[in-house]
Write the structure tokens for this entry.
Amino acid sequence: MGLRVGLVVPNNWTPEAGGGWTFTEAILKALPGVPAAHRFLILDLDSGGTGGQHCKIAPPAQPGLLSQAAALGSGFFMKRSRKDSEVDSSGLPPPSLEELARRQGADVVWFLTPMGEPLPLPYIATVWDLEHRKQPCFPEVSITGWTWEMRERLYSSLLPRASMIITGTHAGKEEVAHYYRINPAIVAVIPFPAPAPLIAPADAAAIKAKYGIDGNFLFYPAQFWPHKNHINLLHAMRILIDKSGLDLCLVLTGSDKGNLPHVLKAAGELGLSDRLLTLGFVPREDLCALYKASMALVFPSYFGPDNFPPLEAFALGVPVIAAAVKGAKEQLGQAALLFDPSDPADMATKITSVCRNPALREQMIAQGREIAKERSPEAYAAALCSHLDKFEAIRRCWGSDYRHA
């Protein structure tokens, strides 16, 4: 018969959110095309009303069809349009997530992104990284924004009660089990999907002219957080220019999260201001075109094991040079050259290898395309449905209206 799966996604998700938005959009688009007995609905706390007015559910004759309801706002990492104490037009306070899920007859709730709240009904949690435990020195996971304490409250309450936890690598699974003493049997490894380009990229000359890029360039799309490691990449660029003789510039895209002034200052001190272009947030079609026009994606981020830009590069036929964080080899296979993110010289050596060896470059591109083909959003959604198939045998043991006698 299949399960009714209530989907929880942030209502403030925009392209500026980076990889999280890309992931959510790709999965929501893929779910309707997956042949499965399960039905998916988006739970919507902000729409107001009661009962079935909160969201639309696919009719039974169309299993797998995703309802076109608005996105949810609730719990950690999410915002509500109304405060819990406020009432809607009916004069009633907004429902809790649990109430909404029960009204819609959800058999299980799936938090698509790393957020949520513990519920007294089956739910699936998602974990992308646990860097606040692994590298708490970085301020963005410790003292600013979503602080260490906030992250720890979330994961320590959410994960132990989850019916299933999804992560992208076996390295990530080990971390979940290690840090939170979770039964490994409930942690499902589903590799991150490689999203297909939304719009056919423009030719290299056009995109370079649009942004004033002169000559060959390396590309790094990443918001300006400290962990994105722009600084060591700049040091690698200095070594590259001085020792290899390669005439390259570095193009950076992404929103400033407080570290851009530090990056620009470092570029000036290293004499790289004329080799650096910071474009800020760019539309997705331009992002795809910049990937395609670059010599390579350089991805020095200290965080992992699951990251999106290398997979985007694979899908677009761009060689990847990435940080050898735990789990990177598992995620990227032989398609990427890996370097020590704390060693600019190692980074420069790997960049030189790709730029000066056409045969290696083509080999990496071909291997990357194979990985992207295997890890489509549809494959991710199908893997999730396979795990739901197994969980259905457990969930059907009690009804939605079960109460202890």
Summary: The CA atoms of residues 52 and 104 lie 7 Å apart. The first helix runs from residue 19 to 30. The first strand starts at residue 4 and ends at 8.
